[in-house]
Hints:
- By secondary structure, the protein is α/β, with parallel strands linked by helices.
- Helices cover about 25% and strands about 15% of the residues.
- It has five helices and ten strands.
- Helix 1 runs parallel beside helix 3 (about 90-100).
- The protein is globular, with a radius of gyration of 18 Å.
- This is Calcineurin-like phosphoesterase domain-containing protein.
- It comes from Zooxanthella nutricula.
Amino acid sequence: APCGGSGKASAASRDDSASGGAPLRVGLISDIQYADCEDGQDFSGIEKRHYRNALSIAKAAVKHWNEAGVEVLVQLGDVIDGCNKNLGASQTALAAVTEALGQCSARTRLDLIGNHELYNISRQALPTSGLRCCGAGGRTYRCEPLNDHWEAVCLDPYEHALIGFASQSDAGFAKAVEVMQAANPQVLRGGGGDWFTGQPEDMHRFVPYNGGVSSQQL
C-alpha cells in the first residue's frame, strides 16, 4: 500500500544455522514521509502522497514485524515529509512516527538519513532528534553489530550536501558547492526551475536534494 512517497515495508531472515548461528530477522521500511495534512504530490507532480495514511502504514508494518519476530529494524530514510517544515510541524510529526516505530519489539533500530530528514532537522540536532542515526561520538556513518555473525554498515549519503547545514561555512556544505559548481552550476543560482536543463541523463544526480560522501567515510 502507498505511504507518503513510495514507502515499502518488509521482513526478511538470513539463516546462519550452517555456521552455527541462529537466523537473523530484519525488518525494512523506507519513505514513510508522514505529515498531518491533506494528500499531495511529489516534486514532479506525478506521484500521489498519502501523508496521514503513512502513519497507519508504519503502525501496520510494526504489527507485522512483531508477529514475525523481527530482531533488527532498519528505517531507510525520509521518515517524515519535507512539507512539515513549512507547517511548523517537524517535531510533532517526527515524534508521532518514532513513537510508532518504538512499538516494534526488535532489539535494534537503525535510522538512516534522507533528504526529508534534513529539510526538517539540522545536522547538529540529529543526535537529540529521536532518530537513531548517530553512533559513538555523534558520527552519522558507522558499523553496527547485529549479532555474532552480522554487522550493518551505515552510510551518511548527505555528508556533503546543500541541505541540513546550519552555516555555509561548514565543510560539508562547502564541498557540495564545489561539486555543484563543476557539475551543475545552475543549481547554485537558486530560484527553483528545471535543474536538469542541458544536463545529460547520467548527470541528473547533481541536484540540491542529493548528497555525497567523503573518501574517509567509504
